[in-house]
## 1
Amino acid sequence: MGRTDKESLLARCRAPELRAWSADWLFWARDDQLPPPGGWHIWLMIGGRGAGKTRAGAEWLRGLALGLDGFAPRPAGRLALVGETFADVRDVMIEGVSGLLAVHARADRPDWKPSNRRLTWPNGAIAQVFSAEDPESLRGPQFEAAWCDEIGKWRYARETWDMLQFGLRLGAHPRCLATTTPRPTPLLRALLGDPDTAVSRARTRDNAFNLAPAFLSAMARAYGGTRLGRQELDGEMISERADALWSRAMLENCRERTAPPLARLCVAIDPPASSGRHADACGLMVAGVTEDGVVHVLEDATLARVRPAEWAARAAALYRRHQADVVVVEVNQGGEMATAVLREVDPALPVVAVRATRGKYLRAEPVAALYAQGRVRHVGALPELEDEMCDFGPGGLSSGRSPDRLDALVWAVTHLVLGRAASPRIRGL
């Protein structure tokens, strides 16, 4: 049942029913906010800012402490709350607008003693408060369950986590919920790489019902598609390799909202060697260069698993829409087929065939040097291309797949400023 359906149902309820339904977390929660099925020990909830992580954590701990259906077969007597600092546990996890005190009805609300760093429920359940700044404080206490918040920000993350795990030894099935906005820390990487970790994900916009529309619009305009937006709003783990030719910081520094007047434009194609379900993607990139030699990457139009006629039609459409000067296509894989299929789509298409004589890494190095010099700019966000760039090292991509987007980018930049190109003529966008 969707949220609109639920609101329609509530509109038909009488006052007593309305109060009961509105307080029922299992009725209102999204699937990603509810405990995953199965016998997991660690539940990792990764989400953007305002995605409802705190509410999910508070409701889960409440369900355990009270032994509610859907959470626990009986009340859990010993619980732990672990945050970045004691102040964070107090201000967010306990006293916050979505914290533990807020989600309880008055009758079953726990007694909060800040000086003792302890919550005590009417049924005798106890939750102790800990800070990730003091891992040793977790040496000794034992628990049935724990809620850890913002583990991506913990100062002593691994030490605190390890001490907590040693203390999760009470009850028939001790378990732990970690709620966090993702950051590429060693602890988060380890948890995500553990097949026994149950993972749920949420984006900020998934919780739009509880957020101001103006906030969502402003965030989308300012950060949509950027590294920061993908991490803080979409809840994505944004990583990069130490040996990659590009870094996230480098790409963020080369971002622009709009392109200036460009002297020449090209559509670059890195065609797949085959078509079908397991074929590589067809890299398609649009870029232009100013009179003073600064390249602006305008669009990543890469297509996955398409037939030659389809990527050729897309390339021709890009050429016309951007009023480009030329279509650059690599012919190593398809030979004359690549140029022939473009001619079939549009016989008047100006096509330049290029052939790779060096490996991908060697071809990409001079292009990366141009980025370091500030001579290549990205117009807007190009997240999938940038992921490839920050994962491309001497051995290629970590996945072993072909860097199709990056290849098309390299051909575009090479044609515009590193290879032989037509003399410039100014054009406006």
## 2
Amino acid sequence: MLRKVLIANRGEIALRVIRTCQEMGIQTVAVYSTADRDSLPVRFADEAVCIGPAPSAKSYLHIPSIIAAAEVTGADAIHPGYGFLAENADFARTCADHDLTFIGPRPETISSMGDKSVAKETMQAAGVPVVPGSDGAVADVAEGLAAARDAGFPVMIKASAGGGGKGMRMARDEAEFEKLFVAASNEAQAAFGDGRIYIEKFVEEPRHVEIQLLGDGTGNVIHFGERECSIQRRHQKLLEEAPSPVVDEDLRQRMGQAAMAGAEAVKYAGAGTVEFLVDKNRDFYFMEMNTRIQVEHPVTEEVTDTDLIGWQLRVAAGETFDSGARALHGHSIECRINAEDPFRNFAPSPGTITGFHSPKGRGVRCDTHVFGGYTIPPHYDSLIAKLIVKDDTREKAIAKMQRALDEFIVEGVKTTVPFHQQLLRDERFRAGDFDTKFLERFELEKEG
């Protein structure tokens, strides 16, 4: 087993990893920027090291400082959490070069799955259904247009190294294709330093459904069922649930087997997620693979009674297992509570929390790093808590989440709690009748 783990992250995921490590008898090291000096991960870790000033580029993204912190504290492994360096192949290689166990997949796996066109080719070779489109990145506008004609308009123009909606455009016809292609390529170059583009057919009425995987690095893979992630704004998820209201056991097994085949082909190690688009006919297509733990992993933990962080640590320590699937029990929903004002177009709302009370009760879980008196720094993601509920059915889980949201008190800053309260009252959501464009049709009622 690992002896001492440095968590190269902050906020609720750093605290989440610290808790599991402590339960497993593993010592922990928190790293922090000057803006996070008084944070709970710093308080509860066995050791803590300041790695730089508030800007991420000078702290949580500064690899030399993180490696130095690991060496000075005698850590033998690094958990990257999600975001920051979690999917940075160079960071994983640097860890290996310094005899530090990177708690995640191999650098080459991160590289191949991080390149959208390479990932698509890899999955296609493994027999995973993919959206019709170009065979990898296209050389120029002309080649892209030819691929678009073959796939059939409308098409999505996507950055090979993209994510979070950057470098992505939808072209409805040939007339607008060239202009949108150039815009997507320029945005991708600015955001990722890589302007390569690939083409995919636009999937009508798509739902975003992902399969949680765990690989032991030898070719064995377990899948833990699916998560429904279609409630999203600007390609950022706001609510997730497991299982999906549109996935039956047959579709679950087919998607699970496809995801496992892709992961087995690259001898995947650790926790990962294969994301699919499911169309209105319930056909599914590979979208991308995330080579890290996901923000929404708790809903899978709840319906499979699994500690996914614990499994990450065990795999990193060399534990193996047989391939298979975990059975799902009940229904779980997660609401992301962000420090944003939903009535001002979700504008960020940093500041000091003057009052805080998290919901309690059977089947209610709140993963958070904030407390009364905590000052939310303006430098990082606005997520301040993840509210998770579990019950026997989706209907009961919705009712439980409504009760929990009513109990949630955050004073001093605006949060997305009112948005979630209105969303859960919406009859279309309650009926499971939504897709990734749902929030474009959802009208938020004014306060009061």
## 3
Amino acid sequence: MFSKILIANRGEVALRIIRACKELGIRTVAVYSQPDINSLHVKYADEAICIGSAASANSYLNIPSIISAAEITDVEAIHPGYGFLAEDAHFAEICESCKIKFIGPTPENIRRMGDKMAAKDSAKKAGVPTIPGSKACVKTKEEAIKIAKEMRYPVIIKAAAGGGGKGMRICHNDVRLISAFLTAQREAEAAFGNPEVYIEKYIERPRHIEIQILGDSYGHIVHLGERDCTIQRRHQKLIEETPSPVLDAKLRKRMGEAAVKCAKAIGYVNAGTVEFLLDEDNSFYFMEMNTRIQVEHPITEMVTGIDLVKDQIRIAAGERIPYKQDNITFNGSAIECRINAEDPDNDFMPCPGKIAVFNVPGGRGVRLDTHAYPGYEISPYYDSMIGKLIVHGKNRTEAINICKRALDEFIIEPIKTTIPFHKRVMNNPAFIRGKFSTDFIERLFEKTE
């Protein structure tokens, strides 16, 4: 086992990793940008090093500074968390070349699944259903129109190196396709340094279902059930739950097995998530694979009792996964609400600023992963997430009721947050019935405006 790990991240995920390390008896090194000097991950780590100014490019994306910090503090491994460098194959390779263990998948895993067309090809070869679409990246608008007419509208344009909704456009006709194609290319270039895009058939009103997997260095891969991530805005997840209210035991088994097939096809190691779209006929299609720990991993931990971050560290240290698929059990229902510093009544506009009042919920079945505290300044430089409210109940109805109660207890002032939005969702009849699709938020706001 490692004796010291550097966490190449900030905020609640850095705290999450520090806590796992402490429980494993591992010393930790935090890195931070100048504005983050008062962050809790800096206070709670055994050592901390400033790696640059506010801009991510000068700090949390600054590979030379992070590697220098790792070498100065003599760490054996780096955990990248999620975001920033977590899915950067080049960073993983540099860690390897410096004899520092990257706590995550191999550079080859990251590179393969980071290329959306290559990932789709891997899924196809593994016998996993994929969304119909172009066989390669589309170079011209003329080629795009030809493919769209063959598939029939609606179609969706996606960035080959993308994620998080960037470089993604839905098109219902030729005119929209031409303008969206050029816009998507520009956006993909700006966001990922790669303008390549591809086209898929657009599946209307789907569910977004992801499967958590773990793989060790000995070829053993298991899945830890699904997370329903359908409640999202502009392809950004806001609420996740497990189990999904629409999956029965047979479909859950099939999707879990498909995720494991995908992972085995590329010899995947460490934690990862295979994402699917589920249509109204309960047919599912591979969408992409995230080669890192997910923001929403705590709900899986709540129903399985498995600490995913500790397992990431153990796998990176060369240990075997200690359980087989049949040993993994799922108990109750869990829901996660992402609490962001955004104004849901003003198009979710970011609301950075200082927190004066921070009263957090507690009680049975409530977990709060946050780096915020009274007096903490929400920075305009980074993601607006304040924390994650995670609840667990014996069934979905109880989990929703616990979530309602916890949201009522949660007071953050004076900045605007998404707490009122989450209250609306938890009281929405369609959500309570489990009858919703990825356009739920748009429909919710349409009805109230």
